[in-house]
Amino acid sequence: MRGFFYSYFMKKLLLTLATVLSLCALGQQENWCGTDQKINSEIKKDPQIKEILYNGLYRAANTRSEFSKGIRATLQIPVVVHVLHDNGNGNISDAQIYDALHILNQDYNRLNEDTVDTRDVPLAPFKQYAASMDVEFKLAKLDPNGNCTNGIVRVDAPNQTYSADDDCKFTALGGSDAWPIDSYFNIWVVNNIESGGAGITLGYAQFPYWGSADTYGIVIRNDAFGTIETAQGTDGRTLTHEVGHCFGLPHIFDEGWGDPGCSTLDCSTSGDMSCDTPPQSSANWSCNPSWNSCTDVPTNDPYGIDVYDQIENYMSYNSCQNMFSLDQANIMSNNLATVTFLTDLVSASNIAATGVNDPDILCKADFTASQTEICSGTVVTFSDYTYHGPTAWTWSVSPGTEGIDFIFVGGTDANSQNVEIEFVSGGFYDISLMATDGVSSDTEVKTSYIQVLPTPNTLPFIERFEDYTSLGSTDQWTVFNPGNNNSFEIFTGFGHTGNKCIGIENFTQSGSNTDEVIGAPVDLSVVDTALNESVTMSFRYAYRKRNSSNDEWLKVFISQDCGATWAQRKTIHGSLLSPLIESASWQPANQTDWTTVHMTNVTMAYFVNNFLYKFEFEGSGGNNIYLDDINIYKGAPSDTIVGGVINDGDIADFGVYPNPTNNQLTVRFSTGLNMDVEIRVCDLAGKTIGREFVNAQSGTNLILMDVENYASGSYLIELIAGQTKKVSRLIKR
Length: 733
Description:
The chain is mainly beta and 733 residues long.
């Protein structure tokens, strides 16, 4: 690793351009960017960081670069784009990536059409200070090993493409490792970004002055990347803004990590250190041409008078962005010329090593599928991503017979560039693509790439895992293990009802990990909504923390379209999952170690013949977790699930959470016996306005209730079991 180290603390830089502007139309003027907040947070932990950042910016701002002298040639910057998606959701096209880089190159070379909007009036004389950076961003054509590439890495990463942070930059965590930063400029494209509760984050970047080489680059939402397809209707300037940060620019309203926003200090040593960007008191989203947040005139200010805010600057939040200033271009150019890893990035030897100027010759066939785990009768779209310049294609599917096991549909056939195939018979299928440009050809084969799930199970569905030797020995369960570490598996000797259960040996793992197990389809189309029939899904889990700080998550998702989309229906984490601590590797010793969860929020939209469900566990160095007795059945009080007869008994540990709540409510209680339980939601006058019937099981029970449609106010939650009645007050926000 060479050069400066780069900032981990910048991982949650919050940007909003298009989204914030729409909010402004509603009169909301909130600051959605956390750059200064994150910097100042790190400075509080280590005050030396402020000096490092200040010195880096000062050096870049106060040196005349070759660019500023007018003698630097155009620089080329090799780019790699990591597309992190969820089984096709967010797997943006090559065309959208090309569009995003096209916008970037226009903006940095002042070729954007809206340069005519840069103001040139007495109180906003900015056109003469607008700069072209003379750089060209190009997708790499050779990877770090010298193999051909199109500069695009596609990773099915459902655990890293949502609420993304710097973990998405590591293959070991289910993301995609950065390519060497002295050879490639890394961009990670995700579905959405963790915001820390501060609103919608469109992207974040990392300054070149301090931090970790493993995380240098940009993370950006796919709907803010470019201007077409998923980013349709946006201006594409989020990427322009983020690259500015990566090359060393603060916001134009940046307070210099401690300096006041408005001041008469020397503009070359304070604020954003770009004297030709007038001081601005704070972020704003207005495009008012007479906006003027500061009346101070800094020392060495090139204008000599109080001028308006530079709302057209790319390092603002305004929607009328169209320029970098000369001083900003000087800062970026100096960093490209003096920060070692950036100098190596743009060197002639690296341009040759990354092949950005090599001719477009076909060297690799590649493709992706819109879905890989499907139900019978599902149509899958296969998209060709061959590079470079294919002219003919041949697709094949094995095993199976065309017209019987699979069918080309949508007007496509085996020689189309992109094909649609309907799969009929269950099982695993290999998919092959041979592509050619008339001179060169290549074949890509993806083994067992498509899994067609078995015939749906019928109601009532009961799963105790007693008949399996392993989860891989059955077509009833699919395990997803992106970290390639411990995953869901069969355990013998301590199941709740029988001898077996499934679980993850989480005790031996360190760091963060996310694992999923997906059940085979269940036919819920037999549920008659005309008779007000409902569905209950229940399961048992056993879990312990390893230490008091563990905050691990168990989530349940359901799907009405055979896994194309998932809806989260249950979340249990931290001390709600279990407050108990076991410092050694743990397994349940008796039935009281198990908690029963009853889900009554499988709504009628999911009463389809290919209903799917999955369990997701997010571990963070805690102890083991186990699942057993998964049941799906029509929900009537007289129905019983695995566990035996229903009797009356005492209720303990009764509580409701979260309280107050917005949408969902969990009722928690324990009982020593199996019993019928009724849960009522009553107004303060005692009128029943909602109820659920549950077959409670011995031990701890969790019942999830949907209260989203209830009016705000106070309610009573009543739990009735035989002669026992418990009452708790609930506040609905």
